[in-house]
Amino acid sequence: MPQPPTASQKAAARRGLRGRFALRGLGRDAAVASICGFVVVLMVGASYAAVPFYNWFCRATGFNGTTQVATSAPSGAPLARKIAVRFDANVGPGLPWKFEPEQTEIEVRIGEVFTVFYNVTNQSARETTGQAAYNVAPLTVGAYFQKINCFCFTDQSMAPGEKRQMPVVFYVDPALAADSENDGLNTITLSYTFYPMREPAPKPLAASEPDKRKGNL
Q1: Which pTM does this prediction carry?
Q2: pLDDT tens digits, residue range 118-127?
C-alpha cells in the first residue's frame, strides 16, 4: 500500500508547480514584448513609407490640388473655351526672399501652352536655398493642370542679393472640358510657397585627408 506524501514532499511539489508557472509567465511576457516590439517597428516603418507613397499618390491623381508633370505639349489644337489662371506667391518663415509673379492673372485657352515668370530676389547677404511647394485651386483641377517646366521641380539656390526670373511652362489639359464636375469652372489659381532648405552638413574627412577648410597651418 503506497504511503501518503510527507509534508516535505508536498512542499517540494508546490515549489515545483510555482516554478513551472513562473517560467510559463516569463515565456508569455517575452512573447508579448516581442509582439509589441514588432508592431512598433512596423508602425515606424509604415510612417516613413506613407510620406513618399502620399506624394506619389498626389502626383499620380492630382489629389489635394497637386499639379501634373507633362513631357510635351498636347497633340491636338487648343479648345475655344478660355479659363483665367491666377498666380499666387508666398515665402515661408526663415527665407529672406522677395517672391512675386510677373503677372497676377492671364486668360488661356484650354490645351494651349503658356510660359509665365516669377521674380525672385534674395534679400540677404548670404547664399540661401529654397524649395517651392505648390498646388492649384479648386483642388479638383490638379489632375488637369500640366507643367512642362517649372522652377519647383528642383531646389533653388540664390547668391547674396541675387535677382532671378523663374519660368513656369504649363497648359490646361483638354480632358478638363469632358469633366462635368468642372463645367462651371472659370478661374484656376496656381499657388507657390518657397520654404527654406537647410544647408548641407560638411562631409566628414578621412584621417589621412587634410582639412582644406582650415587653410594651411
Answers
A1: 0.62
A2: 999 999 999 9
